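Students often ask why inverse folding is considered easier than folding. One informal answer: many sequences map to the same fold, so there is more than one right answer. In these notes we will look at a single instance of the problem. The structure comes first.
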């Protein structure tokens, strides 16, 4: 069954650009769905499905083709009648027939058909016999066993339906963490590279923009024969369901419930398509406005002056033709990047190569799984100049927090260690106690090179109290870094309430630094707060909070988030030389 997300339909009135081919296909498919529920003539239904499929595989925008007076009946599956219907959709953004159908049948029914195993006949029965139009009603009919009254709903069918409802609901409430999404993307890209006649494979969408979470994967390919690539794609091992399969676009669901879209685009449009499908939508809409001012048109096939394609092969070409320098994917959120690009003020974004050390590391003294020396050796392999050992303090008992005597023992061990090229800084991740005091006496704090301070308790204080608590802790002259400043865990725990602006202001006044924690489920500070810190002149440290050697690779997620937050090397203290770093840590 074709996915018929209502997502796009509501936005039709506010779009600046012509209606997209996939929207036309979606409208035609919705009509087909509703006609099927009504039990209409199969030939009529097929006509809409064929129309949808053909429009979906056009290699240029239907609206451009109409503007050029091109004849749609030259395409397979489109008769005179259907051509007229497509024209109506393009010109009005809606389709009268669909609106009429929706008056007879609740449009919600279309969504029920997204449940695999619920075809139009079953949906019609649910509606006619039990007046069920949505998921909630379906669930309660299953619960009350009323559904057993309907012929064709046996135990096996019901079990299937329940599983599928579960999956749909999870999908709606959960976005996948970037770390997980990247893993899946990597394997699929490797797999697609093996397809016959493949030329190029690129990951687009929110993964390319390094968003902290993603809804689905968007992958672009160029190839000699798209049909062969699509055949290959849907045979991927992890695929549990093929949601749609066309000549140039297919969508599947993986076992993990992640949806993957693959699109084949012509070589001469590759840059334009990559730009379009990388988004964000908001960024692309802003680009389109610039194009209109220049009397150009941009879409996924290129930049056009009249009928002539004047750019499209590379992204650079597309941006340059619009009078802009290349804009990095992480910046493409319409958060000021276009204005910055126009005035030559784009940031020179930090890269992983700028990082000289990791300043938040746990060891087997507490809840880490490796020795100090093992963690330092890993830093050496990564080419770092320094590493800070920062185990928990006594208040965090569940993590085996260290008492002062144990910290002194750790200091001695660090003094005795020599790892070539890497300086091991003596540090601690010090608990910020409820009253805003630190969990170690000043005379011990003083002996350390670096103090990473964090809230691990009393998350539910009021915003005022929580803010006051943290700022009071910063008053301690040994406070260096506020670790994972909001305490959020993606998909697991909301941030605790703080007045972030007030905290940034306090940090700036006291020469304290805010951490961007690179653990993929933290990524705390988020992108917007990173940008805010930069604008307020507050320095950031990007740290991994590693508990095992392998975690030190998480630095790349922190870098992704930092780039989304417009950070440059000079905004981030662990790009500094050891000498410059030590100076900053002296407040
Ligand atoms: P996600 O999947 O929610 O994490 O975020 P995206 O950005 O990957 O969004 P997605 O998968 O819906 O679409 C991929 C890209 O395709 C998106 O970034 C921009 C482009 N796109 C999708 N729909 C539209 C649209 O209606 N207009 C424009 N201009 N671009 C669109
Ligand atoms: Ca996506
Ligand atoms: Ca998508
Ligand atoms: Zn930690």
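Output (designed amino acids):
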């Amino acid at each position: 069954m074709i996915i018929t997300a209502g997502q796009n339909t509501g936005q039709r009135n506010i779009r600046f650009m012509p209606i997209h081919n996939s929207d036309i296909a979606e409208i035609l498919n919705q009509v087909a769905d509703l006609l099927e529920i009504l039990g209409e003539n199969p030939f009529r239904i097929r006509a809409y499905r064929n129309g949808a499929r053909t429009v979906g595989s056009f290699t240029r925008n239907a609206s451009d083709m109409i503007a050029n007076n091109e004849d749609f009946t030259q395409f397979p599956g489109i008769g005179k009648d259907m051509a007229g219907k497509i024209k109506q959709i393009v010109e009005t953004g809606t389709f009268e027939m669909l609106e009429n159908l929706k008056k007879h049948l609740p449009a919600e029914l279309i969504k029920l058909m997204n449940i695999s195993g619920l075809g139009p006949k079953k949906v019609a029965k649910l509606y006619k016999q039990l007046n069920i139009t949505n998921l909630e009603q379906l669930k309660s009919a299953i619960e009350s066993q009323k559904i057993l009254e309907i012929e064709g709903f046996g135990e096996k069918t019901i079990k299937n339906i329940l599983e599928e409802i579960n999956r749909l609901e999870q999908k709606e409430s959960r976005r996948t963490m970037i770390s997980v999404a990247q893993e899946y993307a990597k394997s699929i890209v490797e797999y697609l590279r093996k397809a016959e006649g493949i030329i190029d494979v690129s990951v687009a969408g929110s993964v390319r923009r390094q968003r902290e979470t993603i809804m689905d994967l968007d992958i672009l390919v160029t190839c000699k024969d798209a049909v062969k690539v699509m055949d290959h794609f849907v045979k991927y091992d992890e695929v549990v369901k093929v949601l749609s399969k066309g000549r140039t676009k297919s969508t599947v669901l993986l076992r993990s419930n992640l949806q993957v879209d693959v699109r084949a685009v012509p070589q001469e449009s590759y840059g334009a398509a990559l730009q379009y499908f990388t988004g964000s939508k908001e960024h692309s809409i802003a680009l389109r406005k610039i194009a209109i001012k220049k009397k150009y048109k941009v879409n996924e096939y290129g930049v056009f002056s009249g009928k002539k394609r004047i750019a499209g092969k590379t992204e650079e070409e597309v941006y340059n033709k619009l009078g802009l320098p290349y804009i990095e994917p992480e910046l493409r959120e319409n958060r000021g990047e276009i204005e910055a690009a126009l005035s030559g003020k784009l940031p020179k974004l930090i890269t992983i190569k700028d990082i000289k050390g990791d300043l938040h590391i746990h060891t087997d003294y507490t809840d880490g799984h490796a020795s100090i020396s093992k963690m330092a050796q890993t830093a050496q392999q990564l080419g770092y100049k320094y590493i800070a050992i920062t185990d928990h303090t006594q208040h965090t008992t569940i993590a085996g927090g260290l008492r002062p005597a144990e910290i002194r023992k750790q200091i001695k061990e660090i003094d005795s260690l020599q790892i070539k090229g890497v300086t091991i800084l003596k540090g601690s991740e010090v608990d910020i106690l409820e009253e805003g005091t630190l969990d170690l006496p000043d005379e011990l704090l003083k002996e350390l090179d670096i103090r990473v301070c964090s809230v691990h308790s009393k998350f539910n204080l009021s915003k005022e109290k929580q803010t006051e608590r943290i700022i009071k802790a910063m008053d301690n002259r040994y406070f260096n870094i506020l670790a994972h400043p909001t305490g959020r865990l993606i998909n697991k725990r909301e941030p605790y309430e703080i007045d972030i602006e007030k905290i940034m202001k306090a940090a700036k006044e006291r020469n304290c630094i805010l951490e961007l924690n690179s653990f993929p489920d933290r990524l705390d500070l988020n992108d917007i707060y990173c940008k805010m810190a930069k604008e307020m002149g507050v320095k950031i440290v990007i740290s991994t909070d590693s508990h095992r050697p392998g975690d030190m690779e998480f630095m790349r997620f922190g870098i992704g988030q930092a780039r989304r937050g417009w950070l440059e090397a000079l905004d981030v203290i662990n790009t500094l030389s050891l000498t410059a770093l030590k100076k900053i840590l002296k407040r």
